[in-house]
Amino acid sequence: MPAQRPAHAATSHGTAPRRTASPTPTRPDGTPRVAPGAYLLTRAASPQFSQPIVVRVIRELVERQPYDGWAWVDCYVLDRHGDATEKRQLFVRPDGMRPVQIRPVPYAERHRAKVGR
Fold first, then answer.
1. Among candidate residues 102, 105, 104, 94, the one with its CA nearest the CA of residue 41
2. Cα within 13 Å of Cα(66), Cβ side
3. Do 76 and 84 contact (CB within 8 A), yes or no?
């Protein structure tokens, strides 16, 4: 009786299962795709950001057809603690979006009450 091999083992040819290709990093017009994550948006991303904001992008809205060099994104505006305050759909230039690292501030460290005064 031949030895049984586990279901997750490689095939007899030694090949691993094929993975699907990742989405292209740019659109056909050369505009970079927007990956989910936190970004600083300034005038470089759009003239509407005269006051810079930080957002967490959920996804790029690929079903919309923006002008070359622009993209629609679904995102949350973040406050100074990294919490989402508002959900928005924004029209931005991906090459003007600056990735940022947001360190969440635990609730206990935010506004410590001063006791004894």
1. 94
2. 21
3. yes
Contact status, residue 84 vs residue 56, Cβ threshold 8 Å: yes
Query: Which has the higher per-residue pLDDT, 109 or 117?
Result: 109
The residues with which 92 forms a beta bridge, in sequence order, are: 71
pLDDT in tens, 27-36: 788 888 999 9
Report residue 101 CA to chain centroid gap: 11
Which residues are 71's β-sheet partners?
92
**Average pLDDT rounded to a whole number, residues 76-88:** 93
Give Cα 94 to chain centroid, integer Å.
12
3-state secondary structure of 70: coil
In single-letter form, the type of residue at position 59 comes to: R
Do residues 93 and 46 lie in contact, with contact meaning Cβ atoms separated by under 8 Å? Answer: yes
Beta pairing, strands 37-41 & 53-60: antiparallel
Helix residue ranges, H only, 1-117:
107-110
